[in-house]
Predict the structure of FAD-binding domain-containing protein.
Amino acid sequence: MEEEQHEIVIVGAGIAGLATAVALKVVGLPCLVLERSPELRAAGAALTLSSNAWRALEVLGVAHKLTPLYPAINRSTITDLSNGSVKVVPFSQNNSGDTGIRSVHRKGLLEALAEELQPGTIRFSSRIISIDQNSSSSSTTLHLDDGSVIKAKVVIGCDGVHSVVARWLGLSNPVHSGRSAIRGLAVLPEGHDIKDGVLQYVGDGKRAGLAPLNDKELYWYITHIADEREKDMTAEPALIMKEVTENLGKGLPPEFQTALLNVDGATISWAPLLFRVPWGILLGRINRGGVAVAGDAMHPMTPEIGQGGCVALEDAVVLGRCLGQAKRSGGQFAAGVESYARERRWRAAWVVAAAYLSGWVQQGGSEGVCRPVAKWFRRSIYYRYVHPWIVESIRGFDCGELPAAE
C-alpha cells in the first residue's frame, strides 16, 4: 500500500486531539486526526470547565458556542456526611471578563471543536499498531491496522490514558489511585432546584457530587475506594446502578436520590481512577524529535479538582503556538515540539499532584492511622486554606495566545 505524507498527524479525536487540530488550523498548519473509534467518543457524559479552560476555548474561537448553553457555577457546597457540617466555597472570578466555571456535555464540547475543522480532517476507524522514527529524514512512520502507512514530520499523541504514543516514547504506565468513579447524567423533565452551585458530599472513602448543566440535567458522580467487584460491572449499566442504589448511594441526601431515580442509562460509566506520577512527567520522555504527547496521554489525573479536560485545552493552545512559531522560523518543527514539552512539563506535573492530594484528603485518606489524620486535616485546614489556594492558582492560569496564520 502506498505511503501517505502529512506534515502533522494527531492521534486521537478526544478533547486534546480536536483542540490541538483547531489550534493548528488557527496558525495555518493543516493536520490529519486519526481516531480509532467509528465516531466521536463521549465517554464520561459531562465535565466541568474552569476559567483556564474557557480562556483556551476563547483563543480557539469556540467558547461563544458553549457559554450560552451552560450557566456559570458560582459556588460549591460541601457536606461532611460523617457529622453533617456544611462549608460553602465561593468561586471567585479573576477579572470582569472571566467566564467562570461551567459544566458542559462532553459530546457538546467535542462537536463544537469538530465543527471548526475542515471535512476530512478526522479519519475514523484508524488504529495505530506500530510507530517508527527515521532520525535521518526527521519523519515518523505510523502503521495502521488496515495496512495503511502514514509518514509525518510531527506526531502528537492525544490517544488517552492507555496511549500508544506514550508507550512508544517510553513513558511509565499510569498507576491506579486506589479509587474508582461512577458517573452519569440525570434528566429531570420537571426541572431541578440546583441552580448556580455544585453540591458535594464527602465521607469515609467516598465523595459524591451534583453539578447542573442546565435547568433539567444534572451531572452526578461518586468516587470511592476501589472494589474488586467492579471488574464485572463496568460494562453493565444495570449492575452499576444496582450497586449505586444498594450500596454506594446509601446515606446520600434526597436531592442525590432524586437524581439517581432519573438517570439516563446510556450515560453511566464506572472506571478506575488512574494517574501518571508527577515525577514520571518531570523526568520521563514526553517528546522525541517531532513526536510528543498531550492531554491524558501525557498527564492522566484524578478528577477531584476537575482539571483533566481543562489542562488538555491548555496543551492544545501551547502546542499550536509552539508549532506556529516553528513554522515562521523555517519549519523547524522538532524545535517547536521541544519548546512545547519544556513549557508544559512542570505545569502538568503540578496539577496531577494537586489533584491526587485533593482526592486523598477529601475521601478521608487511606485505611489505618492516616484516616483520622486526613479527616482532621480536611475539616480544620484543607477546605479553609489549602483547597482555595490550589484551585484558584490552577484556574488562574493563562495559556496565552495563538499567532495568526500567515
